[in-house]
């Protein structure tokens, strides 16, 4: 993994609110109020060029919304997303890899045409011969063969379909990939193969990754740094080794306790206690206090700021 002090991406005080109000008519007839959902709340982080930063948290914490903001699928409500210049001098552009490769691959197209589409759209190759050569090359890069190009997506397993999605993402020659739960629909053994492929591609092609997952064990071996999100905010961010060796936020500790133990795979691990509160009515103070084993009166009264720690981590907890 090439690590660099230069940022490929700086996300600064990013905010995204969604208007989830009832329709105008329902508001008029039934007096329903306007409701705004604060999905991403003052999120800042950087991704080093050639590195991998992961966003981790339970469903609904806002990690996919950050991914969609970074790839331009959503516009931010506030804050900035700054990409460094890429090899061409223009700002890096991000390509997204999704959780469900089947939903993101056109079922009626042969694989060779799915992978060729960005080459044609972006005019990256001049002739059909060059396009066919590049498609064959991309199939090889992700561990498929030329004959696979003649097949349709339904003829492949989930892991192979994710390889096709990766080949298509690579066709547009991105330098930055945003990977939203790319392995969570796959069996554990296949997950490892796809993660190994992604690490190899990162090294060979000098890619930079923003990785999204609900599972700390999935991102552990991919990430230089990990940011843990809870109800739209980063609650802890640290170098991967520091986060695993010395987790400081009680929420991070609870997430780590839910990782299956390889030595005792059949022992049930505790799930994080309690339900995530509704993001429409987040608790006052520290939004984690309703589930936190260490919560005191102070946690209900005031929200802890995300503070820098001497080991380079950032933590938002009154008692960290
Ligand atoms: N387009 C939208 N309109 C309204 N609310 C949305 C929209 N997209 C996301 N949300 C809400 O924003 C919050 C964060 O959602 P987001 O999908 O980013 O979380 P997540 O951590 O990625 O969860 P998951 O893993 O389930 O996708 C959730 O409460 C979700 O319901």
TrEMBL record:
One of its GO terms (molecular function) is ATP binding. GO terms for biological process: peptide transport; transmembrane transport. GO terms for cellular component: plasma membrane. PROSITE patterns: ABC_TRANSPORTER_1 (PS00211), ABC_TRANSPORTER_2 (PS50893). Keywords: ATP-binding, Nucleotide-binding, Transport. Residues 12-256 form the ABC transporter domain. SMART domains: AAA (SM00382). It holds the Pfam family oligo_HPY. The keyword Ribonucleoprotein does not apply. It is a peripheral membrane protein. InterPro entries: AAA+_ATPase, ABC_transp_ATP-bind, ABC_transporter-like_ATP-bd, ABC_transporter-like_CS, Oligopep_ABC_C, P-loop_NTPase. It is found in: Cell inner membrane. Belongs to the ABC transporter superfamily. PANTHER family: D,D-DIPEPTIDE TRANSPORT ATP-BINDING PROTEIN DDPF-RELATED, TRANSPORT ATP-BINDING PROTEIN. This is ABC transporter ATP-binding protein. It comes from Devosia riboflavina. The lineage of its organism: Bacteria, Pseudomonadati, Pseudomonadota, Alphaproteobacteria, Hyphomicrobiales.
């Amino acid at each position: 993994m090439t690590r660099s002090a230069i940022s490929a991406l700086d996300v600064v005080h990013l905010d995204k609110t969604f208007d989830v109000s009832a329709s105008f008519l329902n508001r008029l007839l039934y007096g329903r109020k306007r409701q705004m959902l604060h999905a991403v709340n003052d999120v800042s982080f950087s991704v080093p060029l050639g590195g991998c930063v992961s966003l981790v948290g339970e469903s609904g914490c806002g990690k996919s919304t950050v991914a969609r903001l970074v790839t331009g699928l959503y516009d931010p409500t506030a804050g900035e997303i700054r990409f460094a210049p890429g090899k061409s001098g223009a700002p890096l552009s991000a390509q997204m890899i999704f959780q469900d490769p089947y939903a993101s691959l056109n079922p009626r197209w042969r694989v060779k045409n799915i992978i060729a589409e960005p080459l044609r759209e972006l005019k990256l190759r001049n002739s059909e011969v060059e396009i066919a050569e590049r498609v064959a090359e991309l199939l090889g890069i992700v561990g498929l063969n030329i004959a696979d190009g003649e097949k349709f997506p339904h003829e492949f397993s989930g892991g192979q379909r994710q390889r096709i999605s990766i080949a298509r993402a690579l066709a547009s020659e991105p330098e930055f990939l945003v990977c939203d739960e790319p392995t969570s629909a796959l069996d554990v053994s296949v997950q490892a193969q796809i993660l190994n492929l992604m690490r190899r591609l990162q090294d060979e092609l000098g890619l930079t990754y923003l990785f999204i997952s609900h599972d700390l064990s999935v991102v552990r071996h991919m990430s230089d740094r990990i940011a843990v999100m809870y109800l739209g905010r980063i609650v802890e961010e640290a170098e991967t080794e520091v986060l695993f060796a010395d987790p400081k936020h009680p929420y991070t500790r609870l997430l780590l306790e839910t990782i299956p133990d390889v030595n005792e795979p059949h022992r049930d691990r505790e799930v994080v206690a309690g339900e995530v509160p509704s993001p429409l009515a987040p608790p006052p103070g520290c939004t984690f206090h309703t589930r936190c084993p260490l919560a005191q009166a102070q946690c209900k009264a005031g929200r802890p700021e995300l503070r820098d720690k001497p080991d380079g981590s950032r933590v938002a907890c009154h008692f960290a």
